[in-house]
Amino acid sequence: MNRTILLTVAALIAVPAAAGPQILPAKGARHLIYDMATGELRSAEGPARIGESVWASTQYPWYYFIQMYYGEGATTLDWGDIAGPQPIGGYSFAYGSHSVLLPERLDVINLFFADDNGFDSENRTFLAGFHIPNLPGADPGGQWHKWVITVDLDAAGLAFTIDGEDLDGDGRMDFSYTYWFTNYTQNNPQYPNNYLGPVIAGDPNAIPPTAPGIEGAFDFFGDPNLNLYWGTYWGDYPFPQFYMELYDSELSCPQAGGSGKRCTADIWPNDGDGIWEVDDGDCLVGLDDLAQLLANYPTPADGNHELGDVWPENGDGIWQDGSDGDGAVDLSDLAELLSQYSDDCR
Fold first, then answer.
1. Is residue 160 within 8 Å of 153, Cβ to Cβ?
2. Is the whole model's pTM more than 0.85, yes or no?
3. What is the C-alpha to C-alpha distance for residues 315 and 184, in angstroms, rounded to an integer?
4. Who's near 327: CB < 8 A, 6+ residues apart?
């Protein structure tokens, strides 16, 4: 049975099973960019974007949640709603720290799920997970820090798509994300300033319109696999939504030539105009594309071929009626599709 704990501000500051403060300020921000393709972590002068922002809970009131106080397996999960299917080519998360006892470098793992509206959902669907290593940890001067990390997924070809159910009936897809700090030591009561956790990025008086679906709650787990559910925690202020910004993927789909994959056969879904372009298709050559081609097979040259005339093509990755193909849907087109079958075109 799900255990929901309603918390006042005071209760949020002193969550059961742990003594001491749980929310601390972190003024100022330092920005870093992590390239998943190279493993390079580089500084940025200010907020960095990888593609257009499509969901952003970033209106932080300069506090962060002391997640690490509960041990190395402690994992927070927060959720929101997004119009989709939505390709994600990068994201930003943020954490705060104040310690001379943390490791010099930290590792964070972020997981993303569909079909999740919080409260220990039994139907969440795993979408993607990313290990971000070697992030700043201990500070020799014991200063407060807030770090905003922007992760470039497109560069590594690791873009994923949020697609799933609308559980709360608002017309958007419900998704969630987690924070797990993997290599710290649980706080020693003798050293009260050993603090680390995700930045709180919600304000109940100014909920950002770019982050629909957020609410003053988060799920808390005792393990990164989300099996040990500790409860759903509520608060009024700070509004406990954890920092996350999602960016649209800038990868063309399909990529003609650049990726080495020829995805002219990714012809379905189509927007109904009879012209297959890079913003049609679903980035995968599969049964839907084969079915669409076979629905037009055989169509003789100069016939009303519609979709399916994928060969020959002019190399630009855009199939256009009258300029590509040979006017027929025949064995050459079928062979071309089968040669690309199961290609991921991203």
1. yes
2. no
3. 51
4. 301, 302, 303, 305, 309
